[in-house]
Design a protein that fits this description.
With about 240 residues, the protein is α+β, with helices and mostly antiparallel strands. The chain is built from 4 helices and 14 strands.
Length: about 240
Amino acid sequence: MRLHARSLASIAMIVSAAALVACAGTPGPAQPEIPPGITAPPPTTPAQPTEAAPEVVSSLPAEIAGVDTTGWQQIAVPSGAATFRIPPGWSVAPAAGGLDVLRDDGQRQLGYVEAPNVGDGACRDASGEAVAWRTLGLDRQDVALEGAPGLAFGSAGLQLGGQWVMTMGLRPAEAAQRPQCPIVHAVDTPAGTISFGTEVVAQGAGAGAPWAIDSLADAEAYLADPEYATLRAILMSLELL
């Protein structure tokens, strides 16, 4: 019995070994070969859904300074600190420290600037030369900007030597009421110092050159132009976020 059991065990081992050899010798499915000189492409990463930009919600009424702004575009500044409105067809363009506001024909009208250079306090013309000056306040309206009380929209005619300049923007209320040279469009807010106007410092120079005019009468006549009311509404639509 013991010999018979050993023989059966030997036969079982031989059969198992043969089965293993047979399994090992069975070829698997053929793998595709990449031709020489061609690199296999990297694995594709699934595309991730793009998050939509958050919608900017304004708390101001549709009518601003007598202008119905229904349908106007709500513009958020690059830093996310503020927003304002512009009419359909108008646009904005990146500028140092913020944005330029462009009319529908592409001409720059206003500039929004954060941490602006407000100059040295001297009254200078477009060439940078200190000159004699005089001003005439044309329009002033209080502006409610959360966290920054005592602000106003102001426009003025400014004579720098022999050159007149039309200027408008946001200023401290007292400065807008009694404009003196240099006229600086800059206000302190919880988001820092912000300039929003025709120029940071009125000179009729550089990007502000279109605001150089022939006479004070030209500035006074412009007050009746619908474009003036549009620009005033844009400036007064500023909100902090």
